[in-house]
Amino acid sequence: MSWTALYASFFATMAFGILFNVPRKSLFTGGLVGMLGWAVFVALTVNLEIDTITATLFAAFSVATVSQILARRYKMPVTVFSIAGIIPLVPGGMAYATIRQFIENNYTEGVRLGSITLLMAGSIAFGLIFSGVITETFSRKRGYPKGNSSGG
């Protein structure tokens, strides 16, 4: 795993945190969340050779779970950490490649790349939702108050 890629994911997450107007005191921690998500994704795809869709699901789940924990610890909405934290996982480059294939009349490749892009986006959404459901389930069993984990 490249340290350069980890640093890039950290700073990209912090930059999007600034764009989304997250509180300054959470920028560094949010950057670490984004870096964690990217590290999980790369570790699964490169080291364990898991497909990108499954790796995206686990990375998004990791980001969301850590975001839930940090939201309770710092008494902030979970979205402060999770929204910026998933930025390194968003398949923007693949979406660009999809559109490019359609423009170049390579429809078969465009459909293939578009399908992968949509599945990756769905994996991100499912990872975030699944983490929220599990966190709420365990919080209720232990008697923890809801707090700011629901985003409000």
UniProtKB/TrEMBL annotation:
The keyword Disulfide bond does not apply. Keywords: Cell inner membrane, Cell membrane, Membrane, Transmembrane, Transmembrane helix. It is found in: Cell membrane. InterPro entries: ThrE_2 (IPR024528), ThrE_Dicarb/AminoAcid_Exp (IPR050539). One of its GO terms (biological process) is succinate transport. Pfam families: ThrE_2. The chain crosses the membrane at residues 6-22, 27-46, 52-71, 78-99, 111-134. The keyword Membrane applies. It is a multi-pass membrane protein. Residues 7-133 form the Threonine/Serine exporter ThrE domain. GO terms for cellular component: plasma membrane. Its main location: membrane. Belongs to the ThrE exporter (TC 2.A.79) family. This is Threonine/Serine exporter ThrE domain-containing protein. It comes from bioreactor metagenome.
